[in-house]
Design brief:
Order of helices and strands: EEEEEHEEHEHHEHEEHEHEEHEHHEHHHH
CATH class of the largest domain: Alpha Beta
Distance between the termini: 26 Å
Oligomer: single chain
Number of domains: 2
CATH superfamily of the largest domain: Glycogen Phosphorylase B
Helix content: 25-40%
CATH topology of the largest domain: Rossmann fold
Structural class: alpha/beta
Mean pLDDT: 91
Radius of gyration: 21 Å
Strand order of the largest sheet: 6-5-7-8-9-10
Length: 336
């Protein structure tokens, strides 16, 4: 196998393993990028690219100015210039767009209509977002986030324990607003990027917009314990918590967030609750599982709901493996 490494900020990234037959003209040359050092790229871009290297000759790129020779290009998050997209299409290159946390309104999608029309395929992780994109795209498809943070073994039932919230600090005011109006009788702990000054500023701005108290300290928010996020701490707290919660806002970007967080907890056997009519509640309801409401604590904390969670988790775990998600991406690419 050949390997190709890219660099980011002078440091080499992990290489992409290429299939041994990559010099065969029948093997698709796939470029994936632009590579950036942020969570959504590492999760959706880098991990998926490595998995797709089982099927294609995959190369990563950092800049739209330096895209390697390819038959197809999968662009993650960042919009390319319209002139470039049209030029690539004119050369017969297939263009695939994966917008991740990029659209804050329907108006933004409409403003991008000419660019969206230039793509052969648009893949997204939320069904409502796909419906908003449908009028502007020749072909769309739903893909999953792979279960990057699913626990290796499902969590056991715990009669006692705390309620866990995991998320970016900028979204914590939604939870604080909800807890002010609906106190939970158990301890609530937050796992977040508490040391991130940009996220802290965004959180304070949102709190002012919501007109709520948001007392942010190094170890607590409004008296609720806060822990610094890391993969190791996330695994530890997911194994230790009794249940998990998420509260979404009502704006467009919140309503089109993929059900990733719910999938992470449910696939780990952790009873999960969220406010109604979120992307997560729609996703699970469509697939035959009703997420608990945080207003119904007795049901949410019950052993019966834990058993229901575990039963649904078995199928979900297999559906969101990296291998399964990679096959879905590859099937969409082959359809072009």
């Amino acid at each position: 196998m050949r390997q190709e490494a890219i660099t980011r900020g002078g440091a080499p990234c992990e290489p992409i393993d290429r299939p041994s037959g990559c010099d065969d003209p029948g093997v698709i040359r796939l470029a994936v990028g632009p590579a950036r050092d942020y969570p959504s790229w590492n999760w959706v871009g880098a991990d998926t690219a490595r998995e797709l290297a089982k099927y294609a000759d995959v190369a990563l790129f950092e800049s739209f100015r330096r895209i390697p020779p390819s038959d197809a290009i999968m662009i993650v998050k960042h919009r390319p210039p319209l002139a470039l997209a049209r030029a690539l299409r004119g050369r017969g290159i297939k263009l695939v767009y994966v917008p991740v946390d990029i659209y804050a309104s329907r108006a933004e999608i409409h403003r991008d209509r000419l660019l969206l029309e230039a793509f052969d395929l648009v893949l997204a992780h939320d069904e409502l977002l796909l419906e908003c994109l449908r009028p502007y795209c020749s072909r769309i498809g739903l893909v999953e986030h792979h279960g990057k943070y699913t626990l290796a073994e499902m969590a056991p039932y715990k009669p006692d324990g705390y309620v866990l919230w995991i998320g970016g600090l900028q979204h914590a005011p939604y939870l604080m607003d909800w807890l002010t109006r609906h106190p939970i009788r158990r301890e609530v702990r937050l796992l977040t990027d508490v040391g991130n000054p940009i996220a802290a500023g965004q959180a304070l701005t949102l709190a002012r917009r919501l007109d709520i108290r948001f007392e942010l300290g190094p170890r607590s928010i409004n008296g609720h314990g806060v822990h610094q996020w890391s993969e190791a701490e996330q695994q530890r707290m997911m194994q230790a918590c009794k249940v998990a919660i998420d509260i979404k806002g009502e704006d467009f970007s919140q309503s089109t967030k993929p059900p990733t967080k719910a999938q992470k907890f449910i696939s780990s056997g952790i009873p999960f609750a969220c406010n109604c009519e979120t992307s997560a509640s729609r996703y699970f309801r469509k697939r035959g599982f009703e997420l608990a409401s945080p207003l119904e604590e007795e049901a949410w904390f019950s052993e019966d709901y834990w058993l229901q969670t575990r039963g649904f988790a078995e199928d979900l775990r297999s559906r969101i493996t990296l291998e399964s998600v990679g096959r879905d991406y590859w099937a969409f690419l082959q359809s072009l």
